[in-house]
Hints:
By secondary structure, this protein is an alpha/beta fold. It contains 9 helices and 20 strands. The strands form 4 sheets. It has an 8-stranded parallel barrel with strand order 4-5-6-7-8-9-10-11, surrounded by 4 helices. Strands 13-12-15-18-17 form a 5-stranded antiparallel β-sheet. A 4-stranded mixed β-sheet has the order 14-20-19-16, with no helix packed on it. The N and C termini lie far apart (about 80 Å).
Amino acid sequence: MERNINILFFLVINFISTITSYSQVSRVEVTTNSSGNFELHRNGIPYYIKGAGAKDHFDLLVNSGANSIRVWSTNNKSLLDSAYNHGLTVTLGLHVRPERSGMDYNDEYAVKGQIEFLKNEVLKYKDHPALLVWGIGNEVDLKYSNFKVWETIEILAKFIKEVDPNHPTMTVIAGVDPSKVFYIKKYCPSIDILGINVYGSIEKAGINLRKFNWDKPYIVSEWGVNGPFEARKTSWKAKIEPPNGLKADQRQRRYKDLIEKDKEICLGSYCFLWGQKQESTATWHGMFLSNGNPTEAVDVMQFCWTGKWPESRAPSIKDISLENVGWKKDHILAPSTQATLKIEFSKYNNTEVIVEYVLYPEAFSDKIGGDIQKSPDPLNFEILNQNDNELTFVTPKSKGAYRMFAFVKNKRGQSSVANIPFLVK
C-alpha cells in the first residue's frame, strides 16, 4: 500500500512539474531597432532565426549552432516537446490544404470544417513554450486558381491575434511573385511575416520583395540548393543533380551573401532539409542520407551559424563523370558493356575514407511541392574493378533509364554523394 502511495505521489509531482515547466509562455513580437530594421524579439531579447526544417537529429542541430526548427503541421506534439527539451524554438505549421490536393475553396462546408479544426489546434498549442511563430499554410499558392484560400489564411491569422497575442503570424508562399504579395497585403492584413520558400529564386528574393512593395519582414522559410523542378534534364527527362560538394558550396554562398546580409527585413531562415526524403532522387535536398549519416551540408551550416568548421569534416565529392563525359551531359550506353565512372573528392582532415557505389532505376516523378514520392529499390550490377576514385562496371542488360550513385564517407559516417543518370539503349 505504501509503495502504491509513493508511486501516486511521484506521478502527481511529475504532472505538476510538467505543467509548471510548460506554463512559461514565451512572448514573441516583431519590432524595429534603432536603425529602423525589423527584428524578432523573444521575451524582450533580439532573436535571429538560425533554423532548419527538421524532425530529428536535434542534438547535432544544437551542436551545429541552430536555435529553431520549422515543422509543417501540428500532427506530432512530441516534436515541440523534443525541441523544447533541446532548447530549440518552433515555427509551427497549420496545414491549410492546398487546392492541388483536392481542396475546394468554393465548398463552404469543407472550408468551415478545416478552419474550425485548425482553430482548435491553435488553442491546443498556443501556450507551448517552444512556440515561436505560427506558419499558416505552406505553398497554398502552388498551382492554385481559387484566390479564396487567402480568406482562410486571414480568418486563421485574425483568430490567432484574438486568442494568442504572444506569437506572430506567418504564411508561406512558393517563390516570390508580385500577384501573391499583392493578394496577401490586400486580403491578409493579420499576417505579420511573409515566409518564402526559395531555391534558385533566392538569388533575387530580397530585391524582388522590395520591388513588389512588401512592407513587412520576411523569413526564408525554406532554402537550400536549386530544386529538381529547376534542374536541367537529359534527353530522356531525367533530372541532373550536381555533386554534393558543389551543392554545399552553393549553400554556404547563399547563406553568407544573401540571407545573413539582409539586416533590414529578414528575420532569419530555415534551411531545407535537416533530414532525408525522396524528391526526384533520395539525395537532392536532404542534408542526411537515408541511413542517417550526415553529409557535408551539415558542416557548412555549422560554419554558417557559428563561423567555425567542425573538428571532423565530411569528405566532399566535387566532380563525377561517366566514360570521361561530365555530369552535366547526356550519358547513353549500350547494354551489357563495360563502363567507367570517375569521381573527384576532397578528403579534408580524413586519413581514410570508404567509397561505395549503388545502382538504381531512374525514379521519374511528376510530384511537386514536397508531395510524397516513393524511393526505388537498388539493383544488382557487376563490378569489374573499383578503387577510391574509379569504378568499372557492366551496364544493365535491360534497356531503360538508370542512375549510379557514388558515396564517400569517413570513419564517423560523415558522407558525401554524387550521381549520374544514364540511359541503356
